[in-house]
Every structure is written in C-alpha cells, then in structure tokens.
Amino acid sequence: MAANTVIAFDLYGTLLSTESIAKELATHFGEKAPGLAGLWRRYQLEYTWRLNSMNQYQPFSDITRNSLDHALADSGLSLDEGSTSQLMKAYDSLSTFPDVSPALEALADESAFTAVVFSNGTNVMVTNSVKSSPDLGRHAHVFKDIITVDEVKCFKPDPRVYYHLAEKMGKGKSKEAMSELWLVSGNPFDVVGAKAVGMQAAWVDRGGVGWTDRLVQGETGKPTAVVKGLGEVMEAVKKHSSSR
C-alpha cells in the first residue's frame, strides 16, 4: 500500500442518506413522503446527467431545488415558498447511514489514509452538510479536504471530475497515478465512472443485492471491492494493496 492512500468518500447516498429527507417531507405529505423523496433523488441525478450530455452546468443547489419542483409536479403536489426553503435547509442536515459514525471513528486513528469528501454538490452546500449534519458534523475533522465540482462545472461520471480530484490530491492523470486513488460510493454510476479513468472503487452495497450494473463489461465495469458498510472499507483497501 502507498505510504498514504487517498480515500475519497462520496457524500449523498454514501455518507448521508438522501432518504432521510422523507422525515421532513412527511410533515407536509404524510405517507406519500418516502415515494416523493425517492422521486426527488431520481430527478436530481437525472438532471446532472442531462446537463453533462448537453455540455451545460447548473449549481447542484439549483438542481436540487428544481428537481424537487419536478417531483412535486409529477406527484400532483405543491409547497409554498417558505416550506420549499425549509426543505432545502433540511438538505444541509441529512442523517448519516448507521455504519458511518463507527467507520469514521476508526478511520481517524489510521495515519496511512487521507480521507476527503468528493461530491457533485457545491462547495457551500457540501461544507454546510458536513458541518451541519448532526451525525456527520462531529467527524468533520477526519476529512482533510472537501472536493466538489464547482471548478470543473460538470458532474460525475464525467472523467473531468475524477481528474479534478487527482489534481487536488497532487496526482497525475496517468492510469498508474489514478490507480492510487480510491473512491468509496454507494452509487453504481459513480463507481463505474471512477473505474473508467483507472481509479480503485469500493461500492457500498448496504442492501446486499450484489453488483448488477451492466453498462461496462469486464473488470473495468465492476468495483474493485464490494463492502456491506463503511466499516469494511479500510480492510478492503489494505487487502487489495497487499495483493498487487
């Protein structure tokens, strides 16, 4: 293993549960909240991919708000301006998954790893989330940097996003240099994007469903490691490094 291995943690859907926003939605829509939360997340991601395809960019905060409006409209629901603003504020304090806190506590004692947050969000949005989340805030010191797409103005899985990470971490763009970087993500599209540029990737399979993505065939289209929770990440990185 390299003297200091960079582990880049995706934020939304990996550290923070976007499904936890359903609690806030439930105050307005009751039992419709879980379905609405899922639809909101679906459009949020879809918007980033569509913008990438059109070679256009909008800040993730705008995308998040616009995709909420889309999900509400599709569901035949509406919110007043004040309630919408409150929901956006709640997005800055999403809950973590249960496995996150103990994993970050263990990571804090590991000098062989450099942990960073690596997200599609704006720097302001991600910084607020890391510091304001009641669960994640107390672990903010574990992360040596917060790396977002603000500067490159495109979204995962565009290769430029992963090369931006490499540049920020002082790495080159060669396959060898990229292979020294690890992504940890619960989002298959993110994993495939990282592998396409030569990074290592640990996919967080909390549901235990196994890897089903078939976009890219062969080993390049599969995660380097599959973990059931963040507590397995460090061991997976060490195991892979020792086998190389």
Sheet with most strands: strand arrangement: 3-2-1-4-5-6
Given as residue ranges, the uncertain stretches (5+ residues, pLDDT < 50) are none
Q: Fraction of residues in helices? A: 40-55%
Q: If you average the pLDDT, what whole number results?
A: 95
What percent of residues are in strands? 5-15%
Please give a handful of descriptors for the protein shown.
244 residues; 6 strands; alpha/beta
Task: Walk me through the structure.
This protein is α/β, with parallel strands linked by helices and 244 residues long. It has helices spanning 22-29, 33-53, 60-74, 81-90, 100-107, 123-132, 159-168, 175-178, 188-196, 233-243, and strands at residues 5-9, 113-119, 143-148, 181-185, 200-204, 225-227. A six-stranded parallel beta sheet has the order 3-2-1-4-5-6, sandwiched between helices. Helix 1 (22-29) packs across helix 2 and helix 2 packs across helix 3 (60-74). The longest helix is centred in the N-terminal third of the chain and has 21 residues, at 33-53. The N and C termini lie close together (9 Å). The mean pLDDT is 95.
